[in-house]
Design brief:
With 125 residues, the chain is an alpha+beta fold. 23% of the residues lie in helices and 10% in strands. The chain has helices at 49-65, 77-81, 108-114; strands at 16-17, 22-23, 70-71, 88-90, 103-106. This is Fido domain-containing protein.
Length: 125
């Protein structure tokens, strides 16, 4: 069995959206390799559950990391990919989309336009 890559676990970061089964973090590194980050088309309509989950994830990112760069670590790639290239962007050059150590940051201007509720102190879900 191959050795799992090292992965930062963001202590205190919510594991998902309560009552909905949507995950924000992963428990352990993928032994088959790191899932690459890539921008995925977002089909969620405003006020849909998918839109609220994306907003809740951005809310958690903003209140945990703020405007500072953060390591990808154990953040769920599927959830990140829905924000990647828009609200969440690389914070380093060159950027390795297949690294748990890759640095990301929130593009606050884009985030506030897409999900203004994510930047409130308290977000109703």
């Amino acid at each position: 069995m191959p050795k799992r890559p090292d992965m930062t676990k963001h202590r205190g970061f919510p594991s998902g959206m309560p009552g909905h089964g949507h995950h924000f973090t992963i428990r352990r590194a993928n032994e088959k390799g790191v899932t690459p980050l890539k921008a995925l088309q977002r089909l969620a309509r405003p006020n849909s559950i998918e839109h609220r989950v994306d907003a809740a994830f951005l809310h958690a990112l903003w209140h945990h990391f703020g405007a500072e760069p953060f390591e990808r670590g154990n953040l769920d790639a599927g959830r990140l990919n829905l924000l990647f290239g828009r609200e969440v962007v690389p914070a380093e050059e060159p950027f390795d989309p297949t690294s748990y150590e890759a640095l990301l940051r929130i593009d606050e201007r884009v985030g506030r336009k897409s999900f203004p509720e994510a930047f409130e102190d308290v977000m109703e879900v």
